[in-house]
Amino acid sequence: MHQSKLDFFCKLGYGKQDICKVLENLGQEALEDDVLKELIRMGSKPQALENQAQPSQLKLVARGSCSTTLPLKGLGEDESDASSSLRPIVIDGSNVAMSHGNKEVFSCWGIQLAVDWFRERGHTYIKVFVPLWRKEPPRQDSPIADQHILEELEKQSILVYTPSRKVKGKRVVCYDDRYIVKVAYEKDGVIVSNDHYRDLQNENPEWKWFIEQRLLMYSFVSNRFMPPDDPLGRHGPTLSNFLSKKPVLPEKKWHPCPYGKKCTYGNKCKFYHPERPHQAQLSVADELRAKTKVPSALGKEKERCQCSP
Question: Which residues form the C3H1-type domain (predicted)?
Answer without folding.
Answer: 256-276
